[in-house]
Write a sequence for this structure.
């Protein structure tokens, strides 16, 4: 009888430990997500500031020139079907276009 009581007590303690560990793990996952979002926001801000500086250098923009394209487009490939695949120098543009295409 005494052995069974000790085993039940051990099971309870193990469950409490596992619950505490899961809570700690969940809190760390939340903190990780928050930090990743903050990092993405900082990277986006940096890219926007860089784009603003480039645009100021090129003002006033009246025509799309090869110089202008070189600032923003890394390279353009054309698929066999004739569709262009544009790689931008800034991930900001790629992400915006991806969102636009999904709407």
């Amino acid at each position: 009888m005494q052995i069974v009581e000790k085993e039940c007590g051990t099971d309870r303690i193990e469950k409490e430990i596992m619950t505490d560990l899961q809570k700690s793990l969940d809190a760390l996952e939340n903190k990780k997500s928050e930090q990743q979002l903050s990092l993405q926001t900082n990277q986006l801000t940096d890219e926007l500031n860089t784009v603003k500086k480039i645009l100021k250098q090129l003002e006033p923009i009246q025509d799309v020139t090869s110089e202008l394209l070189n600032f923003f487009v890394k390279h353009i490939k054309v698929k066999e079907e004739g569709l262009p695949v544009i790689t931008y120098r800034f991930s900001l543009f790629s992400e915006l276009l991806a969102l636009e295409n999904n709407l």
Remarks:
- The two ends are 66 Å apart (CA to CA).
- Residues 2-58 form the longest helix (57 residues).
